[in-house]
Amino acid sequence: MLDKIKAVVDKNLPLVSNLSNVSALLNELKDINWCGFYLRREDYLYLGPFQGEVACSLIPLSKGVCGHAARSKQTIVVPDVALFPGHIACSSFSKSEIVVPIIKEQTVVAVIDVDAPIYNRFSKKEVMFLGNVADLLKDLF
Ligand code: SME
User: Fold this and answer.
1) 52 lines ligand 1 (CB under 6 A)
2) How much is the pTM?
3) DSSP string, 74-123
């Protein structure tokens, strides 16, 4: 899928167009119910292009799995969202989650968020894959 993402990303297009198409490709991942982007502005994250149910529009950096990933600049894998203190439940279907920061020049500019309707959906494989996607996308910011 990384090849498909590389093929669809065009640095000459607006960010929203690129992230919209990348969200459509990420939605081809099996056993997920939400995927998309939250973009950084000052001390909060705002909803970007996504696929799935209506989600929270704004997440303070101090809150949620997304805020934690943005603050720590680390990929966060949550095998069971009910056990993550401060998890923000946008959908009752979400059981596990991965959030990967997009880092440009040591600054988090956005996060990739993927939710799954099953527990333990995300492993090292997704950490690697979404890390590569984040690395590819950082140049768009
Ligand atoms: N669960 C996230 C919020 C975003 S939704 O999953 C789409 C969080 O705790 O930050």
Assistant:
1) no
2) 0.97
3) S-EEES-GGGSTT---S-TT--EEEEEEEEETTEEEEEEEEEESSTT---
